[in-house]
Design brief:
The structure is a single chain. This protein is α/β, with parallel strands linked by helices. Helices cover about 50% and strands about 15% of the residues. It contains 16 helices and 9 strands. Strand 4, helix 15 and strand 5 form a beta-alpha-beta unit. Helix 6 runs antiparallel to helix 7. The longest helix is centred in the N-terminal third of the chain and has 26 residues.
Length: about 425
Amino acid sequence: MGDLMEQALVQAAMLDNDAAMSLDIGAEHFGDDAGQTVWAEMAKLLTMNGSVDGVMMQGALKDDPPALSWFADAMSLACTTTQIEYYAAEVRKQAKMRRLQDAAQKIVDADGDPDKMAGELMSKILAMESGGKRADYTAKDLMARTIERIDAASQGEQLGLRTGWRSLDKKLGGWHAGDLTIIAGRPGMGKSALGMNAAVNAAKLGARVGFVSVEMDAVSLGMRMAASAAGLSISNLRRGDLQQDEWSRLAKASSEVAELPLRILDAPSWTMGQIIRQCHAWHRTGLDMVVIDYLQRTKPDIKTDRHDLAIGQMAQACKTMAAVLEIPVLLLSQLSRNLEQRQDKRPQMGDLRESGQIEQEADNILMLYRDAVYDENSDEREAEVIVEKQRQGPVGYIPMQWDGQRALWLDADMRD
């Protein structure tokens, strides 16, 4: 039964690549080496190419006869793509049953204190429920890990992913695994640009990054990335108005961006659940950070008359994803227009739209402010990142620079 359901899932995934990309299934869910190899190769090809077919799979498996035979058996079944979610649920259930049986057998084979063994079994069950992440620590284990982390920091090791901005690294210590960071601003403040800059900066430093765009189409996002990397005006790129040397700069910069470990999801009509499943799929082949642009434009999975509840549930889902995948998640958010009625238009915590649960779920809340948006006499390059909340550190203001022509956020002391 196990092999049959796994093979049905593989065939359905081959027939519906889009559905396969959103499944929360990894090679570890398969019961034998052949099935694990088939799913791993299929996931790799989907990630690299966006699609996979039988010829590609035969090429990938040609040096592994057992896996190739397993795949051939799978493709000979009579399955339907409409049942792919059912197949996936059954494969997950069977994988969990195998882990439970293995854990129980180890307890049966062990010779020791029954109470201690029962505790160990319960810890393993809880770890399964938390996605394999360790859930139970003794005080001794916890303190050992804590001292290791403090010692690493004392040696100059930054515990979070570097942001690419010295001022943010100094204030936040980087983007931290398991943290949900809200980046909020009014329209025109540059929150999409900061999210994009954060993704590119992290990718340039070696992190594998996923950028989810709910607001902007992929080509527009690519144009911004190219403009920032090449040091060219976005408006000139849109018009194709470039000098010969600028074409050369664009070609060089776009080639460099193309080599970054960066994935883009163009998701204007996706629900948050679909986005999170895609992030889980990315994670199986390597994912260190996710940026989602932006919260209020994302569709909730469950329709409700209470928009604030839907927003809160989506923020909670992003926090859960950050914790389960052990990656930083940057979630962009809109601010209420009410702040524009005040004389001092610098945003505050209460300006977060549908703010209650967003505040509760977020580890960090960063708010963007540029005075030039409201005062034409202000310096267009002056900008601020306001740290309204930082669960593990101080709040305060971070002076920055804004380059609107290139959609770039820069350190305040940067000269270019």
